[in-house]
Write a structure and sequence with these properties.
Length: about 350
């Protein structure tokens, strides 16, 4: 742990010092909400943001990404250029946990070279959350309300200053651009007070301990709830598009009209869309919305945990905010729990 103090009045100077060397992505005001965008003016950075529409995942796994371009007339293939070294500024701890899951998914077993290249040149400055984003957050229930790894620098808001914890060599190097000061015993005392006081502001929203989630889903495969959700769901995929832990994509060749030149690109995909599970012969092995909803929640609380040792949900609440028919993880998981406790419906 290497702690320093950054006065809030010096935050813009820190960001301005990074801009000549890095692309800096951070939360900014956007259409009455907040979004992670490339920072051009340090004054645009809004570290007081509650949450963003899309998670910072889009910097590591872009919505659309060219893998390579090709030209049949010359038989040439050109690898896509990667963006410059990037600093993600102001990442909340739920999104930090989500990135740790993505790191696990894309760097073990079948390694994804594009993700690995982007991740290697991305530094993360995270931010301790001191208040819930809104009524949809359930990070405390999912164990993502704080983090002690996965970042290069972690920031804690002390009111008029941030205490910075640089845990990597790269994080220490970033501080060369920051007018930081040594911490005093009084700063340490303030930090401990801030961290102790935050917990009571966050409610537990699951009616059971998260360690019970995977076993609960195991006995809920035949719950009638899935059919109820299938009746309500619009199949719009908004819940998966905004999710920091969803990582499914589709790969397509996009050619010019002569079919001579083109690009192979990958785009985010969603298990909630009609044709996601359509295979050869037109067979769709997950045709009903009920089956798709069940698959979504099984992945969040069971399948991803079994495959990657991290839960597939970090409790950010984005899917709950995005869903027009009020299908939310908290309500689904609690309903399954109470069905099981009642003993009849699972
Ligand atoms: S499932 Fe919903 S609450 Fe959980 S991580 Fe995804 S968007 Fe956030
Ligand atoms: S956002 Fe809601 S309606 Fe849309 S696919 Fe997801 S659960 Fe269904």
């Amino acid at each position: 742990m290497s702690l320093t103090i950054l006065r809030k009045t010096n935050l813009s100077q820190f960001v301005a010092g990074l801009l000549p060397h890095y692309r800096v992505g951070g939360p900014v005001k956007f259409n009455g909400s907040y979004a992670f965008k490339d920072i051009q003016d340090p004054e645009d950075l809004r570290l007081d943001y509650p949450t963003t529409i899309l998670p910072p995942k889009k910097y590591l796994l872009p919505v659309r990404e060219t893998l390579f371009s090709f030209d049949h007339s010359t038989g040439s293939i050109t690898e896509a250029e990667l963006p410059p070294p990037t600093v993600l500024f102001g990442v909340h701890t739920c999104d930090l946990h989500a990135i740790q899951l993505l790191d696990r998914v894309f760097t073990r077993g079948h390694i994804d070279p594009n993700y690995v290249k982007r991740r290697k040149q991305t530094l993360i400055i995270s931010l301790e959350c001191l208040n819930p984003c809104d009524e949809h957050s359930f990070c405390k229930s999912m164990g993502t309300l704080t983090a002690d790894e996965g970042y290069d620098i972690h920031m804690i808001d002390l009111g008029d200053a941030y205490i910075l914890d640089a845990i990597s060599e790269e994080g220490q190097n970033l501080l060369k651009h920051a007018p930081v000061e040594p911490v005093t015993p009084k700063d340490m005392q303030r930090m401990n007070t801030v961290l102790n006081e935050k917990w009571s502001r966050f409610p537990y929203r699951l009616d059971f301990d998260v360690s019970e989630l995977s076993p609960l889903l195991t006995v809920s495969m035949k719950s009638p709830l899935w059919e109820e959700l299938g009746q309500r769901c619009l199949g719009c995929a908004a819940c998966t598009i905004v999710c920091p832990t969803c990582f499914c994509f589709d790969v397509k060749d996009e050619t010019d009209l002569t079919l001579t030149r083109g690009e192979r690109a990958r785009n985010w995909d969603s298990c909630q869309l009609d044709d996601f599970a359509t295979v050869a012969g037109g067979h769709n092995f997950r045709q009903s919305k009920a089956l798709r909803q069940r698959h979504r929640f099984m992945r969040k609380g069971k399948y991803i945990l079994a495959a990657h040792e991290y839960l597939g949900c970090v409790g950010c609440g984005r899917c709950a905010r995005a869903c027009l028919v009020d299908i939310t993880p908290v309500k689904v998981f609690n309903e399954l729990y109470h069905q099981r406790e009642a003993g009849g419906r699972s």
